[in-house]
Design a protein that fits this description.
The protein has 310 residues and is of the alpha/beta class. It has two domains: 245 residues, Rossmann fold, CATH 3.40.50.620; 29 residues, no CATH class. It is built from twelve helices and ten strands. α2 crosses α9. It binds iron/sulfur cluster and zinc ion (2 copies). The site of one zinc ion has 8 residues, from α1.
């Protein structure tokens, strides 16, 4: 089979478009897609001090790799990596080692913070403690909320102006569908390539350079570029609602290639409509920590109170 673009030997089949591409044309297509997202959604400025939330998985490693190349052409920009050690036995060590290796290879400064040191408990310990309360949340709910908060606080301390995450197309449409099924339209209104409907000085804007890249493409790109990443899965990942949603969307994509792109497109058309109706006026401040929240306590303070964390 010949490459649809340069007619050299094709190595990669893109089922969503029906195209066969050679390695070079695939790399070009992938990077073009990321650059277009950054440009059209104004994710970065040439003077940004950006931190990549680096887990050691393929997605954040690819973000770091691509932003590092862009950063070389923007002398006033800065780029660092922040990794969070949630304390998930077996899995965490491997992923943190991979994160360290990719930073070393690219010559990027890495900051590592742990749940244990910052919150007093590892995620494993938090999950154990949650079993003692009525209706405990899934591990991912605790992990996501606490990790996001720690990343934001540390980024603020480091003077970071943008926090880049590895969310890809699959993650984004899974989140959209989960929010839709839960009837949480306010959360859909807060989605997008750059996160946050409301500007607040305590909140570092989060950007998603890979938001338009299918997960399989991210993996192929990482392999072609020989970017080191950890392949083992977090032991808590399958317990979540997200796992079911992932299976459903993957099955639809298999039968109807291109559906994932269509779902993202539909979500993006919905976001501005929902934003205009979002309950912006109802946002207030958490009465404990002062962060923005729609209730009287933010999610982090709710978790800390429920589980008696320091
Ligand atoms: S799968 Fe869940 S528990 Fe594991 S790292 Fe991701 S959010 Fe955290
Ligand atoms: Zn080609
Ligand atoms: Zn709070």
């Amino acid at each position: 089979m010949k490459c649809a673009r340069c007619k050299r030997k094709a190595e990669i089949e893109l089922k969503y478009s029906g195209e066969f591409l050679c390695d070079n044309c695939f790399i070009e297509l992938f990077e073009k897609r990321v650059r277009k997202n950054i440009r059209t959604n104004r994710l970065l400025k040439s003077t940004d001090k950006t931190a990549v939330a680096l887990s050691g998985g393929k997605d954040s490693a690819v973000v770091l790799y691509i932003l590092n190349n862009l950063h070389k052409n923007a002398p006033k920009s800065e780029l660092v990596a922040i990794s969070i050690d949630q304390g998930i036995e077996k899995y965490q060590k491997k992923s943190l080692n991979a994160a360290k290796a990719v930073c070393k290879k690219l010559g990027i400064e890495q900051y590592v913070y742990s749940f244990k040191k910052e919150l007093g408990l590892t995620l494993d310990e938090i999950v154990e403690r949650s079993k003692k309360i009525e209706n405990p949340a899934p591990a991912c709910s605790y992990c996501g909320v606490l990790r996001r908060k720690l990343l934001n606080d540390k980024a603020k301390e480091l003077g970071i102006t943008k926090l880049a995450t590895g969310h890809n197309l699959n993650d984004e449409i899974q989140t959209g569908l989960m929010n839709f099924i839960r009837g949480d339209l306010d959360r859909i209104a807060r989605m997008g390539a750059i996160v946050g409907v409301i500007k607040d000085e305590g909140f570092i804007p989060r950007i998603k350079p890979l938001r338009e890249c299918p997960e399989d493409d991210v993996k192929i790109y990482a392999e072609l570029k020989k970017i080191e990443f950890e392949t083992s899965k977090c032991p808590y990942s399958e317990e979540a609602f997200r796992g079911t949603i992932r299976e459903v969307i993957d099955r639809i994509e298999e039968k109807h290639p291109g559906s994932k792109f269509q779902l993202l497109k539909a979500t993006d058309q919905l976001i501005p409509i929902l934003r205009s109706k979002a309950k912006v006026g109802k946002i207030g401040r958490c009465r404990i920590c002062g962060d923005l929240t729609s209730g009287s306590l933010c999610k982090v303070c709710q978790i800390k109170r429920e589980l008696d964390l320091g």
